């Protein structure tokens, strides 16, 4: 079964590049450009993992992460946080994993594989 990812970042170039890369790796990737949009998408159809930036407009990643962890229907969702800024100890504890931008593609893929089973081929 194909694993579904929600990618949350306000930088369109990053979203486009990661969508292409992750789709080529066999993931189904949906995008949101801020925390508010991400929450709507999470409640409409829960993904297998959320890959999110911290610095975004409307609702930043810190608030999104806090709300996800407080929501009984989402609190166990694997969340990989990526940021070019400082990631606090509290955010590290709330996230399943953290990545400092810029990161190597191999590190991202290894992190996803650690928190999700490999997608099955042919599905």
TrEMBL record:
<dbReference type="Pfam" id="PF00072">
    <property type="entry name" value="Response_reg"/>
</dbReference>
<protein>
    <submittedName>
        <fullName>Response regulator receiver domain-containing protein</fullName>
    </submittedName>
</protein>
<feature type="domain" description="Response regulatory">
    <location>
        <begin position="4"/>
        <end position="116"/>
    </location>
</feature>
<keyword id="KW-0597">Phosphoprotein</keyword>
<dbReference type="InterPro" id="IPR001789">
    <property type="entry name" value="Sig_transdc_resp-reg_receiver"/>
</dbReference>
<feature type="modified residue" description="4-aspartylphosphate">
    <location>
        <position position="53"/>
    </location>
</feature>
<dbReference type="InterPro" id="IPR050595">
    <property type="entry name" value="Bact_response_regulator"/>
</dbReference>
<dbReference type="GO" id="GO:0000160">
    <property type="term" value="P:phosphorelay signal transduction system"/>
</dbReference>
<dbReference type="InterPro" id="IPR011006">
    <property type="entry name" value="CheY-like_superfamily"/>
</dbReference>
